[in-house]
Design goal:
76% helix; 6 helices; 119 residues
Length: 119
């Protein structure tokens, strides 16, 4: 569960805090779905992704894009680490894009796995 530091809570509007949480939670949801679909509950998305992508026949470039999205979540200031106000100013648009990409990946994997298990 996301808990903002008291310092951040005083300096950032609630909308920005929810934006920061959006990226973290969206990528976390994708990781959670990947764990459920593969049964690899103790592994990270980066570890699960190669086998999952191979199982569903995902193009290597799309696999790389999802892996880079996971890396963005861990690397972007303000998402998994602290940040300054300047660094957070463009995060809202990026958060929306991450939300759409992760939702699309979740739907894609779920549909592909369902198709494979019903054949």
């Amino acid at each position: 569960m996301f808990t903002a530091s008291p310092c951040l809570m005083r300096t950032q509007p609630r909308r920005l805090l929810l934006t920061i949480r959006c990226v973290k939670d969206a990528v976390g949801a994708l990781e959670g779905v990947a764990r459920i679909l593969t049964g690899k509950t103790g592994q990270t998305l980066s570890k699960i992704l190669p086998d999952l992508a191979k199982t569903v026949g995902m193009h290597k470039t799309l696999e790389t894009a999802i892996d880079k999205l996971y890396a963005y979540r861990g690397d972007e200031q303000g998402v998994a680490h602290g940040a300054t106000n300047t660094e957070l100013s463009n995060l809202a648009a990026e958060a929306e894009m991450v939300l759409y990409w992760t939702a699309g990946a979740i739907v894609y994997f779920a549909k592909k796995i369902r198709t494979l298990t019903w054949i």
